[in-house]
Every structure is written in C-alpha cells, then in structure tokens.
Amino acid sequence: xxxxxxxxxxxxxxxxxxxxxxxxxxxxxxxxxxxxxxxxxxxxxxxxxxxxxxxxxxxxxxxxxxxxxxxxxxxxxxxxxxxxxxxxxxxxxxxxxxxxxxxxxxxxxxxxxxxxxxxxxxxxxxxxxxxxxxxxxxxxxxxxxxxxxxxxxxxxxxxx
Amino acid sequence: xxxxxxxxxxxxxxxxxxxxxxxxxxxxxxxxxxxxxxxxxxxxxxxxxxxxxxxxxxxxxxxxxxxxxxxxxxxxxxxxxxxxxxxxxxxxxxxxxxxxxxxxxxxxxxxxxxxxxxxxxxxxxxxxxxxxxxxxxxxxxxxxxxxxxxxxxxxxxxxxxxxxxxxxxxxxxxxxxxxxxxxxxxxxxxxxxxxxxxxxxxxxxxxxxxxxxxxxxxxxxxxxxxxxxxxxxxxxxxxxxxxxxxxxxxxxxxxxxxxxxxxxxxxxxxxxxxxxxxxxxxxxxxxxxxxxxxxxxxxxxxxxxxxxxxxxxxxxxxxxxxxxxxxxxxxxxxxxxxxxxxxxxxxxxxxxxxxxxxxxxxxxxxxxxxxxxxxxxxxxxxxxxxxxxxxxxxxxxxxxxxxxxxxxxxxxxxxxx
Lengths: 160, 417
Ligand code: SF4
Description:
The complex is a heterodimer of chains A (160) and B (417).
Chain A: E1 4-10, H1 17-20, H2 31-34, H3 46-49, E2 55-58, H4 70-78, E3 82-85, H5 90-99, E4 103-105, E5 119-123, E6 128-130, E7 135-137, H6 143-150, H7 155-159
Parallel strand pairs in A: 1-2, 2-3, 3-4
Antiparallel strand pairs in A: 1-5, 5-6, 6-7
Helix pairs in contact in A: 4-5
Chain B: H1 3-11, E1 22-26, E2 29-33, H2 37-45, E3 57-60, H3 70-86, E4 90-92, H4 99-105, E5 114-117, E6 131-134, H5 137-146, E7 148-152, E8 156-162, H6 172-183, E9 192-196, H7 198-201, H8 205-214, E10 222-224, H9 229-237, E11 257-262, E12 269-271, E13 279-281, E14 292-296, H10 297-300, H11 303-313, E15 323-327, H12 331-339, H13 342-349, E16 352-353, E17 374-377, E18 393-396, H14 399-408
Parallel strand pairs in B: 2-3, 2-5, 3-4, 5-6, 8-9, 8-11, 9-10, 14-15, 14-17, 15-16, 17-18
Antiparallel strand pairs in B: 1-7, 12-13
Bound molecules: iron/sulfur cluster.
Iron/sulfur cluster is lined by residues 62-63, 98-99, 119, 121, 297-298, 358, 361-362, 379-380 of chain B.
C-alpha cells in the first residue's frame, strides 16, 4: 500500500454528520454533486479551500449523529484520503470503511501536534505518520480492512 | 450472557458470543427510508439482482414526505419502482409516519428480533427488548443482498433510574437530557445502553422509547429495556403476542459500567444550542424569546406527547410572534389524537399541523429556521444548522416545556403550570 501525502485540515470534537453534510442536501444522489458540499455545515468555504489529497484531523466522536452515508460519500468525493480522530461514531465508521476511506483512531492524537496546514506523510500499513520534523506511530488498521481500503471498499469484494 | 448477546448469538446460529466478537447475524426486519436511494444504487453496484428476503424488507417515506422538491419526488418514484420489481409489499408511503413508529405500529417488532434501519435512531426499538441498530446505505445494500450483516458484540452500559415519581412537568425527555448532559456525547460509542430500575418500570412504554431513542446521542449502537408486563400489554395492542427469541440476561453478566440517577431530583431540562449534551435546567434559560416551537418526531411526537401539550394548551393561545408546528409521529397517532380531541385543542390554541413524518427535524422542509431565529424542538438533535440556518439557535426540550413556552412565547418552565 502506497504512502499518503497531504495537507492537514483540522477540526474539533463532536463534529456531527449535519456539519459534515447538511441535511438540506440529502436528496442529492450523484456522488460528484454530493462531494461539493463537504464540511459545509462547519466551514462553508471548505470546498473552495480544500486541496484534493488532504487529510482531516479531528477530536473525539467525529461523525456522530445521523446515519447518512452522504457524510462518507462527500469526504471521499471531495478527495479526502484519510481521517484521523481521537474517536469516531460507529455508523460513520462503518460507512467510510465500506467505501474504502480509511479512518484511523488515535486516542492520544493531541500529542502528535497536528495543526492546520501542516504537510504529513502516512504509511497506513505500517502505522507511521511523519511530519516535517517528527515521526509518530499509531495502531494500524487490521489487514482485512487495509485490503478493503486498497481495493476501494466493499464493492470490490462483490464485483469479482 | 446479556439478552442482547443471546439475541445476536441465536441469530448467528451460535450457542454463545462474547464482548468484542464479530458475528454475522441474520436480520429479521430491514427498513430503508426515503433519504436512501443510495441503498438501491449500491445494491445493483454490488451485483444484486434479487433481494434475499423481500418479506422482511420495508421502505418508509418519512424524511422527505410529501416530496418537497422534484429530486425528492424522483427518489420516491425510483424506490416505489424498486419495491414493485422486488416484490416488497411493505412500502409505507407518504403520510404513514416516522419509520421507527411505523414498524412498531405495524407489529413488525417483537422482542428478541434484530431490526436494522437506515436511521441512527433505530435504538428506539430497544424499549421492546429488541436489538435495533442503524446503518448506512452500503451496509443496508449488503443486508438486502445477503439477509445478514456483521456486528461487533457490544459492551453494555447499565443506567439505573431510581426514586420517583418524577417532579412536576418532568418527562422522559428531561431525564435522558439530564443523563446525556452528565455522561456526554461520546460516553456510549459502540456500546449498548440498558435502562432499568424502578423509575423505568413505572414509566409507560411510550416514554421508554424516548430513553432508548436518545441513547444514540451518546453514541450508542443499540439500547435495551427488559420487557415486562407493560411491554407485553403495549405489544398486544400492536398485534404482537410472543418473543422471536429468548430475551433475558444471566445474573452473572458483567456490565462495562453502571450509572445511577434519582429521577425525583431531575427538573425540566433543555439542551441549549449547538449540542445535545449542553445541559441546562429550563428555569435557568427562562424568558428567551422563541420564534418557532416544533412538537413532533420519533422522540417527541407520540400520543402521550400530544396529550401532554393539549392538556397545557387547553383554552390558551399560542403567543403572538411565535409559531407552533405540530407533526404527529404517525397517521395512527394523529387519528388517536383526533379521537381524544387533542388535535382540536391544539389547533384552537393556534397550532399548525403537518403530514405525519419527520417534518423539519432534519432541516429539509415544513418549518425551517431563518438566521437569527430561536427554535424549541421536542426532537433529538440541535447540532448547528440541524433545523435550518447555522445561524439559528435550537433548544431541545420536552413536549411539556414546548407547550408551556408556546403560551408565553418565551422559554417557560412547565413545573409552574
Ligand atoms: S423524526 Fe428526526 S430523528 Fe426521527 S427518524 Fe425522522 S429525522 Fe430522524
């Protein structure tokens, strides 16, 4: 699995799915359209300032609230390549993994000092995150889940 | 084992399971709501042709019903076509009500069942001794395809409600807001929350739903209340006479944590704008002007909620400058409320009624808040922008507080009425 390189977009605790993807856009079904409203409930400018390949870093309980898969679809289609948080809400977690978007839970994420705009390099399989001057370790995802992610999600298992 | 573990084990064809284990369990009832055309799309993308258990599959049009936009209407039509093509008879179309309430009323929910819906508040069903949980579109598509899904056997948190009876104006909503405010939004991520104790036993089943419903606001995967005589009485009115699987917890089961609350010490409560765990006593936020009050949803729109509001608003008028929107959780609730005279009482007081369903709960239609407006809602969430503008301010309260506040047009304590 190749390493991910990207810029950090940082958020706080309890970012719920209404902030990730506001309810008023739930009728949209085209994934490209859905991808244009990422994080709009917390940062209306996000779509404009986000550079594809970026990584979201957040506090605890990221993705709480509704079961809407749009929240996972919007991040994936906006070009988010990974999300690091202290903890994730469970439905959101399942939704993202199913779509092949890696979510990495790091309880002591604060100690990594990952601030907005920093460039990082992530080796998902090895559980290594590098910033300009430091190297951090995290518990890697299980092999099954890594394989799922590498193949673009659960759909790959059924398309064979 | 815990009752929840027994349900999962039996549904997975196993003698026993333990916490943390991943099991693939058969799903007894699957429900797709009208936000989720993606389920149909994913089903075909996964190579699906025929739904495995059409008789155990249901669709409910509640979130965007009646369709407020052409796009929503297109989605409804595509879902109707899917149900017709797949032989899915249980399509509850526009106006039948909110998914959780509708499944219960249709007698589809029996103790011991595994019920999965594309909605986070499926935890509601735990009040009937059910393993109820929400999933997203791709997981649901997998259920339609395989009739089963993998689950992690959850830890169980026990919440014991003691004391009582609750004080004047205190409803289940106040109790659960108090608990969430105390334990916080992420206290139960991935866990099952069980409610027990004398104050739960004394509570009508309609109120128990509120506890289980709002457990998801602490991150719960599922909620649970051990069925008792009241549960069975309630189930009989829905045409359910027996459990689907055994539901009891072994005396030696070890809970992840135990939390005790004395309900007689809880006062009318509110979640103040921004987050469900921003707890305040209603008396401490009294006097705030309110533009719109919404009584409805899967947590605050049942007969008991409408009856409480009608009792408070009888012979009174909604204050000038405040709107009161009432949306019964289902058409059955609406008819029962009409038969009891509650709808008439509320309309005479100045309430506006809308089609049974979710209404403005998720900010899609039927009462969206403008920037700068203050809303009171008996629903479950007040995240920024949940019911409209991110610049609006939304308080979650009980139906009693909502009704009391309608009279004055400002947040008011129902304990004083
Ligand atoms: S009423 Fe609100 S919380 Fe309940 S299912 Fe509908 S949108 Fe969700």
